[in-house]
Design goal:
2 domains; Elongation Factor Tu (Ef-tu), domain 3; FAD/NAD(P)-binding domain; alpha+beta; 7-stranded antiparallel sheet; binds flavin-adenine dinucleotide
Amino acid sequence: MRNISHEEYDVIVLGAGAAGLMSAITAAKKSKRILVLEKSNKVGKKILMSGGGRCNFTNRYVESHHFISNNPHFCKSALKNYTPQDFIDLVEQHEIEYEERKHHQLFCKHSAKEIVNMLLQECNDLGIKIKTECDVKAVDPISNQELRNNLNAKNTHYRYSINVAISNKQGVEQLTILCQSLIIATGALSIPTLGGSDYGYRLAEQFNLPLIERRAGLVPFKFNDHLKNLCENLSGLSLPVIIDCNGTEFEESLLFTHKGISGPVVLQTSNYWNPGDTIAVNLLPKLDAMENILKQKEQNKNVTIRKHLNGLMPKALIIELQKLWWPGYEDYSICEISNKELRIIGAHLNKWDLKPSSTEGYKTAEVTLGGIDTDAIDSKTMEVRNQKGLYFIGEVVDVTGHLGGFNFQWAWASGYTAGLFA
Ligand SMILES: Cc1cc2nc3c(=O)[nH]c(=O)nc-3n(C[C@H](O)[C@H](O)[C@H](O)COP(=O)(O)OP(=O)(O)OC[C@H]3O[C@@H](n4cnc5c(N)ncnc54)[C@H](O)[C@@H]3O)c2cc1C
């Protein structure tokens, strides 16, 4: 008999981000021994950076239509188990001041750090152990036979063994850890410097779970044609627009950047965009531009198109659009331009078809679309259907929220659900 030294836990959580910490807190209310293993040197890095440092921690109104997934119904059960109000109650218990911004988005009044501190305090009060700088080398299902023969475990309820190298001041400690339930909350690919990793997908492959193709979401667009110059010239300028992409519309502000376009409306749109798709930008959402410009002509208004648009959109943008849509007519009055030309210009203003060359990718994306196919997971528990005691939660799963606090609400809700059943 080979006796391997090991530690034993009821629940192990891989990943100390939003979902992982919430699952540990929930599990600790019914099980005693909970351990969280975090790869990086700090917990909750994305929470700290979120919402411009103020963490848009939830949204007052969360519905399944705020999420993208191959199975749009999958998220419903978890979202019902743990509602925005549940998280608000926790925030209030910890006396964290928050504010409601437009579209019902809730942000910390002071700092995202308060949310991380709140979660850590909950963990501390519940006796949850957290180890950082953990390099998980292997995760293996274990049989009772192995437990008896090799590990001399105190009971035979353990289902997984984890080999991990933990860096600390003394050096690197190699550890074998046994657990009954294993919750994978290792997040997704976005922003590698904040912990973005493919670990969850690799583990899913090890257990033969299907994956939905991944791509960057909530991410700015880039252009590599003449529009790159236009965007560069307008960099920093923003205006309210509507963007339609593949039949889904968002109305919010658009921001020109050095490489292309960003701003809330663009980030939202990027979740529905696939390479090669065209997006339609309505620069004058409140106005039928064609009708408006023709009316000016009927009324014999002796103004240039540029002057007509002044006050309706930023001047710098008008100058750039002039180069695109009415070159040669810069100094003509509307009355001197044919109705046909004016109709074309008006139509462009309400529907500017743009074909981004790409997105900025995982380096700046707030989320990763796709992930572990929800068919493999029981939506009521977040447990893998054919793998007792193994749970996947948070962003690693094929559930992605719109901008506005929905991604954190999914992390809290899926984490809570797994914690209840693990
Ligand atoms: C810049 C930015 C701003 C954002 N702002 C908001 C916002 O305001 N509101 C909102 O709702 N959403 C926001 N999001 C999205 C939100 O942060 C994520 O959806 C959410 O953090 C996902 O939670 P998670 O726990 O699944 O993953 P993460 O929070 O990414 O946590 C995963 C954790 O697992 C660790 N890990 C990875 N691999 C391993 C491994 N092998 N072993 C152990 N640990 C591992 C990582 O280091 C990380 O700590 C933002 C995202 C970014 C990048």
